[in-house]
Structure formats: C-alpha cells, structure tokens
Amino acid sequence: MKVAVVDDSISVLAQIENIFKDSKNLILESFRSPIHARNVCGEVTFDAVLVDFMMPELDGIELIRSLRNLDSYRNVPIVMLTSALDRDVKIRAIEAGATDFLLKPFDPTELTARLRNLLQLRDAQLRLEERASELEVNFQAAARDVVAREEEIIWRLALAVEYRDGQTGSHISRVAEISQLIALELGFDAQRAHMLYLAAPLHDIGKIGIADSILSKPGTLTPDEITEMRRHVDIGVKILENGTSDLVKVACLVTAGHHEKWDGTGYPNGVAGEAIPIEARIVAVADVFEALCSERPYKRAWPLDEARAEIIAGRGRQFDPACVDAFERRWSEIVKIMGSPSASEADEAQRREIGLAV
Fold first, then answer.
1. Are 186 and 278 in contact, with CB atoms under 8 Å apart?
2. What share of the chain is helix, strand, coil (3-state, %, to 5)?
3. What Rg value do the Cα atoms of the chain yield, rounded?
4. Does the pLDDT of residue 208 top 80, yes or no?
5. Where does the chain show beta strands of DSSP type E?
6. Do the beta carbons of residue 202 and residue 253 sit within 8 Å?
7. I need a surface site. Which of 9, 14, 192, 233 has the fewest CB within 10 A?
8. What CA–CA distance (Å, rounded) separates 118 from 350?
C-alpha cells in the first residue's frame, strides 16, 4: 500500500523512512513541500497520508482540507503529526477531515501500530468498494436481462396480435420506427424515444378481442361493425391498465389515445389537443401513415407521396401540428423505413373506405 508523508523537516522524513525501510508491503513517498504533495495527490491516490501541522506555504490543516475536497481522498486515512496539539488546533483539524493525531517526538512502535491499523481499515474499505462495484455490475447486468426479456415478451405479443389481424408484423415494426423518429425530432431523449419504440407495437392489442369476421372483412364495415371494431381500444386499455413497468404504462397511454383526434372528434373519449398524451399523438401519425401505405383486405396500398399528403391534410384537425411537422422533417428517413413500396392505383372510393376513424 502507498503512504505519503508530508513534512518540511528532513530529519523527520528520514526518521519515518528508517522506521518503515524493511516493510515489504509498504511504499513510502516523502514530500517536503505541501503544495507539491497536493499536486501529486491530485494524480495519485495514496492509501494513507501523514501530514505535519506547521509547514511553510500551506499548513497541515489547509492541506487536509484540500485533500478532502478530492473525491479520491474522501475516505483515505489522514494522520496529523504535530509537536503541540492544543484544543483549537485539534478541533480545526478534525473539522478539516483529520482521521488521527500523533504527537512529536513519536514513538516508532506507536507510529507503526497506528499506521498498520489504519492501513488495515483502508484495505477492508477497498475490498468493500470492490465488492460493491462487482455487485453493481452484476445488478446492472441482471436489470438489463430483465428489460430485454420484458421487451422480447412485449414484441412477441404485438406480433401475435398483428398476425391475428392478418398482417405479417411489418406494420408494427414500421409504426415503431416512425414513432421513434418523430419522438426524437420532438426532443425526446434516446431512452424515452426507445421506450415509445417498444410501446408503439401494442397500440392495437385490443384487436385480440375483435371477431375475425370484422378484422378480415374485405368490404366496408357497417355502422354496427365499426362500433364493434372501436371496442378494441377499451379492450386494449383493460389488458394494459394498472401496469407496474414504465413500458406497459406508456403502451397503455398509446393504446388509449391513438384514435383520439387533435380537434376532439376522435374516440373513445373525444379528448382534444394536448389532453391527448404526446406518445399517443405521435403513434397516431405513424399508424395512419403506415396503414395508408399498406395493402389491407378492404383497400390497396397508397403511394407514399399520397399518404404523406393525407397526413399533412390532417394537420391541426386529426393530428397534432407539431407531430406532423416532425414527421415532415424526418421524411427522407421515413421513406427508407417504408422501403419505397411501389405506387398503387387507389381510387377515391377506396380512399374513403380506408376508415381512418376505425
């Protein structure tokens, strides 16, 4: 272990070096200048420091206070060496962070015993810190494993719902990616945007409770069927509500609000504007855009530019203007996500059948 000795007396330094000259497990470094010692301690962490009280340039109390301001010296034992220790000096030294005191002239046996005890404590402290560090690493690894498992389960559940809806899984993947892009453009930090990326695929989880005859119907839904289809929001909320993980909580917000509209004409609650959670407002844009561009039993796929125009047309009515603007600014990246699908010849009747409100 490394010990620093700071004393302006050459004889004192020589005496201490002589006492520990045969110590095999101790590296002693002597300093006559307290300023030099402080500078070295800023780069090297000693396991104990012996400091004289009366020194030029910087007295022992000032040096101790300076060392304690370094993070690496918050717990290092510091012993003050002094020939006269009155009550005032002792109190000031303790307040500065002195661990122990040793009066000059010191007894070699006492100095050896004091330093040995302090170094044993220091060694135990370092072992505890090392163990704590190992435990922290193990905990973080376990936490990452739990998160990864949660994410995998969520994604596979979303895929199951997507296949139930007659899709291949590409819809939820693209909705997730586009939602993440919009979120980042709106100022979400990476972690929050990734959370939305994971939550977005669950936006239609409630469709698991909707009849196949409605989900796979090739034609326009009747008013009663539309009412039944809209129940997927309430079903999804019931599946996700009262979740304990942040991911499930965000997914619940998205599920509950992705069919609400900026102007308040959406469902199920007819909320408007910023009363709709921002996560739901983002997914609403991504979901409708991707749905327009995808072929479904009741419609052909729209060309990208036409789907883009439809999103822009809904700005301030169906969609949050800020989300649409963010969507626009990320357009080149969104095109890459969509894989540049070929344009289809969708007529006006088919566009009306898209059922954006469903």
1. yes
2. 60, 10, 30
3. 35
4. yes
5. 2-6, 27-31, 48-52, 78-82, 100-103
6. no
7. 14
8. 83
